[in-house]
Amino acid sequence: xxxxxxxxxxxxxLAHAREGAPEEVCxxxxxxxDGDDAEVLARHPAANAAADPRTRYEIAxxxxxxxxxxxxxxxxxxxxxxxxxxxxxxxPSATDAAEATWPGRSYVIAVxxxxxxxxxxxxxxxxxxxxxxTGERFVAEDVRSTEASDPDA
Length: 153
Description:
The protein has helices at about 5-20, 60-75, 95-100, and strands spanning about 1-5, 25-35, 35-45, 75-85, 105-110, 125-135, 140-145.
C-alpha cells in the first residue's frame, strides 16, 4: 500500500497544521486509486467543526457534501483524509479509529512541529505519516513523494 503525495500538497498540509495549531485541522484528499495504491492530486481543506477541536476533528455534513461534489465534478475520487495532531504523534488515536468510516482510504496525520522547518536545532520537527483504514484497524502505508500536484485538480 502506497500513497503518492506531491511535495507541494505535503507542504500545504503541514502549513495548514501550523496555522491551525493548537487546534486540529482537517481536509479531504482527492485523486485516483489503483488497487492498493492511491495518488493525491489535490487537497480540499475543511473547517474543523468538532465540539473540542483541540483533541478531535470533524467535517460538518454540509461542507463534506460540498467538497465531495467538487471532487466528483473534477473527475476525481476521494483517496483519503488528513488531519493534524498538534502535539503529536503522527499516528491514529483511539478516537481516530472509532470515527473512521471510509475503508480502503488513506488517513494522513500531520504534526506541525514548533518551527515547521525540521532543522537540526528544531526540537520538534514536522512529521507526516499515512495510515490505511481496513474497516477494522489502521495499517501504516508508505508515502511516496512526487514532484507536483495536478494544476487542474
